[in-house]
Amino acid sequence: MRRMKFTGVGAYVPERVVTNHDLEKMMDTSDEWIQQRTGIVERRWVEPGLENSDMAAKATLAACQDAGCDVKDIDLIIYATLSPEYLFPGTGVVLEKKLGLTRTPVLDIRNQCSGFLYGLAVANGMIASGMYQRILLVGSELHSRGLNKSTAGRDVTVIFGDGAGATVLEATDEDKGLIDILIHADGRYAEDLTCLLPSARVEGFITPEQVARGEHYPHMAGNKVFKHAIVKMPEAIQEVCKRNHLTPRDLDVLIPHQANLRINEIVGRALEIEPKVFNNIQKYGNTTAASIPLAMRDALDQGFLKPGHLLGLTAFGSGFTWGAALVRM
Ligand code: UT7
């Protein structure tokens, strides 16, 4: 079985910075509450005219430049997002068009905060089987236009931000790259973090009455999600380490999904590797499928993550879905 290595990591965030103080002007919230409960100081929101696929394209070009390849050299695009431009087709083909490609296969996946890990698992299987040599995996989210910016939506709205991350993944005979990955899901919790509309359960997929009631906005049972996240992410890291005869202490760096700084602090303490946990949620909020590649780019730029490091990745989110991976950088 051939291994898969990361040859390029790219990121893009919109220029518009939205601080907690900016949110105070829209809803009944405070900088103090947001920082204490989530660690978030600011996030990015798009300006009109910038779309999910535009952010993905910018992150893709940066990843390809990092990898020293051309977009034409990509064999498959995997696009992870929960904030697509159309109900169908998936946003992957919109990105493909913007990249000037006309034949490259595109796979859209809907695994929310675990989207990047699910995409990594799919890419790994395809590269290991010999089906493809070079895969682009993108996580891109445009949350800001879909958030309830009144007090009724404050628990959800203050945590999410816009942004994109992309990685170029290539087959390798070297002793580096993805060592192992596991992914899990438990659909019993599907409605604890969800956006119910538009929906094929509804005539016309959405009604004016539903919109008037605000049912088209995301809903989150925050406490429940929090309680599961702090158990499932450490468990997944333990599991992937154990089956590779490693312990979490062997990791040089852990990049968890960026949903809440308190969650990641608890995960770091549970695994007894708190100083090795990398976070950038303070600057970007929760960018869902984009958060891991965005954090990888920042960690590389800051020298926190270096070639040769043993990197752990973990994520948890809507579904519930979760997982963990081990990577030799
Ligand atoms: O990325 C996918 C996975 N998502 C997550 O992992 C998110 C997990 N959940 C969380 O991060 C947290 O649950 C939140 C940050 C969303 C909420 O924090 P919390 O500590 O669980 O707060 P809470 O929902 O228990 O609310 C506590 C209080 C409530 O007021 P009362 O009932 O005690 O008077 C809320 O109404 O805080 C209030 N509140 C707020 N106050 C100011 C909720 N949101 C806000 C807000 N500003 N934005």
How would you describe what is shown here?
This protein has two domains: 3-175, Thiolase/Chalcone synthase (Peroxisomal Thiolase, Chain A, domain 1), CATH 3.40.47.10; 178-328, Peroxisomal Thiolase, Chain A, domain 1. Helices cover 32% and strands 23% of the residues. The chain contains eleven helices and 13 strands. It has helices spanning 20-24, 31-38, 52-67, 92-98, 115-128, 154-157, 208-212, 222-242, 261-270, 281-284, 291-301, and strands spanning 3-12, 17-19, 42-44, 76-80, 106-109, 134-141, 163-172, 177-185, 193-194, 219-220, 253-256, 310-317, 321-328. The strands form four sheets. It has a five-stranded mixed beta sheet, sandwiched between helices. Strands 8-13-12-11 form a four-stranded mixed beta sheet, sandwiched between helices. Helix 3 (52-67) packs across helix 4 (92-98). The radius of gyration is 19 Å and the shape is globular. The structure holds oxa(dethia)-CoA. Oxa(dethia)-CoA is lined by residues 29, 33, 37-38, 113, 154-155, 158-159, 222-223, 225-226, 229, 259-260, 263, 286, 317.
Estimated radius of gyration: 19 Å
The small-molecule ligands in this entry are: oxa(dethia)-CoA
Q: Which sequence of SSEs, written as H and E, runs from N to C?
A: EEHHEHEHEHEHEEEHEHEHHHEE
CATH architecture of the largest domain: 3-Layer(aba) Sandwich
Count of structural domains? 2
Query: Could you name the ranges where pLDDT drops below 50 across 5 or more consecutive residues?
Result: none
Shape: globular
The CATH topology name of the largest domain reads: Peroxisomal Thiolase, Chain A, domain 1
**What value does the average pLDDT take?**
98
Helix content: 25-40%
